[in-house]
Design brief:
Length: about 525
């Protein structure tokens, strides 16, 4: 089917209407520049919003040919962005591309006749606005802004110390009383029940309170009144906390072999009925927490089945996202921990404050915990993928949202076993003898030759083509699989005299002394 391409006139008008810049608002790169003495280097593309022909991205069969090749259906993009929009049709819809086009033309209209800002302009403006100093002092800009903000807020009520911070688009304001300050706080009726429940948890168990600032009115401090009257965010009240270290180690019951895990640094939050420890290790990949009730022993709270939820372990995979699975930080340490827990090694913990042991648990059997079993299965999947990646030099990247079927999981495990040399068998270790089918050739020559074999031989069976496999959502094709047999004798299951060309004959391979069967991949 013919394509409805744009005319040269349409293309020239299109790029001129956006000042020769990419229409993607997150890109906006210039698309043309001089090349040599007389030539022009152009990286711009007149892309179709709805495809130029059937089967293309966002194709609209109801659109007329005239409209399909008109400027109305065109958007000017750089080469990279033009490829992106055609590879991900769901993300880059017709409506979005029209929005880009309109915004790019509006921007070009506004910029017409105006000088574009330079890097020095931006630096000078920010430096002057934020620091009040020349641009050579820009390294102090962020600190100066925070100090100025803190002093400005403290002047509203000198009874408080104020500390500010900004991270991931969120501004935090810490307010610390220098003396006893009497204030009244009113909670809106629709939030009152929720606040009472949270306050009870703070008092009894040390759980921090978080509530929308819109639900709160404070009187008695100009500082607090100003913050809650203007800021929109979350108001939190933190419990008393103490730094602590959680020790964790595993013991194999039969051998008493001990494997220690990294110290888990964290804090304890106190209430009148219980306290909670929350900490992490392995650069925050591994998190560990537990709650301890003052009315029960430490061992009871950790051991009893009904209280098992009081101890929690979790892995945060954010640091692994997009990283090659060959180089995942702390992977070997975490896999060893969960593998041993799943194999029945007992888990021991102790809590230390300032180097003094405060609590010690007896061994806990965690091998049947669903979380442990699910996590070790996922870590084993990663381990098998690592073996495959290293063996075939495939670039496989970690993705936390990966999912695989039970068949896909068994396939990757089988491939890993083959590559690790685990599919090697001797006589008595395979459930039945290996068999294959042969097609009788002309004059039955191959079968006659095989029937004359009277001593142990070696043979190989090779797949005609490799299997496809999906690993972390990426498709690969394996090399053909080989089954190599050493020290076998063929046994033909047919009357040789009655065979004719193209008959199919079953051959059984009988193990002899020093028999070996090995499954491997073609190199």
């Amino acid at each position: 089917m013919a394509r409805d391409d744009f005319t040269k006139l349409v293309i020239e008008k299109l790029k001129a209407r956006v000042a020769h810049r990419c229409s993607n608002p997150d890109c906006r790169v210039p698309t043309s520049a001089p090349s040599g003495e007389e030539k022009v280097n152009n990286i711009g593309v007149a892309a179709h919003i709805t495809a130029a022909s059937s089967g293309g991205p966002r194709y609209d069969p109801s659109m007329s040919q005239e409209k399909r090749k008109s400027i109305e259906n065109a958007i000017w993009l750089c080469a990279n962005c033009s490829i992106d929009i055609d590879r991900d049709v769901e993300r880059y819809s017709t409506a979005l591309l029209n929005e880009w086009k309109n915004k790019a033309e509006d921007t070009a209209r506004i910029e017409l006749g105006r000088k574009l800002p330079s890097n020095n302009d931006a630096i000078d403006s920010v430096s002057a606005a934020l620091t009040g100093f020349p641009k050579s002092y820009i390294s102090t800009a962020i600190l100066n802004v925070h100090q100025a903000s803190e002093k400005s807020l403290e002047m509203l009520d000198p009874r408080f110390l104020v500390k500010t911070s900004h991270d991931n688009g969120k501004t935090s304001i810490g307010i610390y009383a220098k003396e006893n300050v009497q204030c009244s706080m009113k909670i809106s009726s629709e939030h009152a029940k929720q606040y009472i429940e949270k306050y009870q948890h703070l008092f009894e168990h040390g759980k921090d309170i978080e509530i929308d600032s819109d639900a709160i009115t404070i009187e008695g401090s100009k500082l607090l009144e100003e913050i809650f009257g203007t800021a929109k965010g979350v108001f939190s009240i933190s419990s008393r906390k103490m730094e602590a270290t959680q020790k964790l180690w595993l013991v194999q019951d039969e051998t008493n072999v001990i494997e220690s895990f990294d110290d888990i640094k964290g804090v304890i939050s106190f209430g009148v009925k219980s306290f909670t420890f929350e900490g992490n290790a392995c650069n925050k990949l591994f998190s560990f927490s537990f709650s301890f009730s003052f009315s029960f022993s430490y061992q009871k709270s950790l051991d009893e089945k009904d209280d098992k939820a009081n101890i929690n372990m979790s892995l945060c995979f954010d640091q692994w996202e997009g990283v090659s699975i060959r180089f995942l930080p702390y992977y070997e340490k975490l896999y060893s921990l969960y593998k041993k827990m799943s194999e029945g090694w007992e888990l021991f913990t102790s809590l230390e404050i300032n180097g003094i042991r405060m609590l010690l648990s007896k061994g806990m059997a965690v091998s049947k915990w669903d979380y442990v079993l699910d996590t070790v299965s996922f870590l084993h999947y990663i381990n098998c993928s690592k073996v495959v990646s290293e063996s075939f030099n495939w670039d496989i990247r970690f993705a936390s949202d990966v999912s695989c079927t039970s068949d896909e999981y068994r396939q990757i495990c089988d491939v890993s076993d083959v590559l690790s040399g685990k599919q090697v068998y001797e006589e008595g270790t395979i459930p039945c003898n290996v068999t294959c089918e042969l097609i009788v050739d002309q004059k039955c020559a191959n079968i006659n030759e095989l029937s004359k074999v009277d001593h142990a031989i070696s043979m190989e069976m090779v797949q005609s083509e490799g299997e496809d496999i999906s690993i972390f959502g990426k498709q690969f094709t394996l090399p053909p699989k080989i089954m190599a047999l050493d020290c076998v004798l063929p046994k033909i299951h047919a009357e040789i005299a009655s065979l004719k060309e193209n008959d199919i004959v079953q051959v059984e391979w009988l193990p002899q002394s020093n028999f070996k069967c090995e499954v491997k991949y073609e190199s």
